[in-house]
Amino acid sequence: MSERILGTRGATRRFGSFTAVDSVDIDVSAGEVVGLLGANGAGKTTLIRMVLGLLAPSAGDVTLFDGPPDLQRRARLGYVPQNLGLYRDMTVAENLQFSAESYGVPEPTLPAGLATHANTLVGDLPLGSQRQVAFVVALAHAPEALILDEPTSGVDALSRARLWDTIREQADRGAGVLVTTHYMEEAQQCDRLLLMADGRLVASGDEDAIIGDTHTIAVHCADWGRAFAALNDAGIPVILSGRAIRVPDTDERDLRSALTSAGIDAELEDVRATIEERMLTLARAAGR
Ligand SMILES: Nc1ncnc2c1ncn2[C@@H]1O[C@H](COP(=O)(O)OP(=O)(O)OP(=O)(O)O)[C@@H](O)[C@H]1O
């Protein structure tokens, strides 16, 4: 079994009377990429900030490299926050130099695509390049753990694929990676997924295990607009995927009855839910 790099037991964080993270247990081992998924506000960043030692838990324990997440242990991990944590009014080279000096490691070499930007102010770079720089900075000291908070948000598909190559390389050399994402095609690149909803961990495992036997009814209908409105009016939570209407985890009879009452002729097909649809049903069930 691989060495456990970080973990939480009953990790809870309250802000006043609001519980942002509620009794969460997670583990990340060396060499694995663990995806942390959940809607906006599910508690992912708050959990990450506790793991990083930037936020004290209100209850429960956080372990990083077999101890508390103190400064010494934090120096062994690389972190790319949502806002990247770079100095936007310094050049790429200055950012690299500053970070290398802070960690006492040699200055990293810029990948080919970034080399021409060494003297560009970080704030003047396109977002995709800024994210690449943030990765170079976070990886300069060959961290044993990597924590990435929406590392590819807002970048094009090619840059995303490159960043994922880097993430996989880091896991292959033995780092444990915890990464949050809103992109489901990225979730598929993870070895394991953790799903949060309303502060709680509501599912874990690979995509197949998380979807389990959750089914969706696909509604095939010439007038999809009317069908959508009728189901909405009947209080049935509908997903519109392009022009296809999908209703996860529902009773087909309720659906049929809502459509018939509205005089809509539709063909109903029972299909396996997608991971997004499973997330929605779990989030609904966890709703406080
Ligand atoms: N310092 C704070 N004070 C009060 N509430 C907070 C604070 N930080 C976070 N929250 C609340 O805790 C909840 C969880 O926030 P968090 O940022 O952890 O969610 P998230 O899953 O990371 O969302 P996103 O995907 O949008 O980043 C939200 O309702 C947020 O408003």
UniProtKB/TrEMBL annotation:
Regions that span the bilayer: none
Q: Which domain of life is it from?
A: Bacteria
Q: Does the keyword ATP-binding apply?
A: yes
Q: Which Gene3D superfamilies match?
A: P-loop containing nucleotide triphosphate hydrolases
Key words, A-Z:
ATP-binding, Nucleotide-binding
UniProt GO MF annotations: ATP binding
For whether the record's keyword set contains Nucleotide-binding, the answer is: yes
Q: Where is the ABC transporter domain?
A: 6-223
What is the designated name of this protein? ABC transporter ATP-binding protein
Q: Which organism is it from?
A: Rhodococcus gannanensis
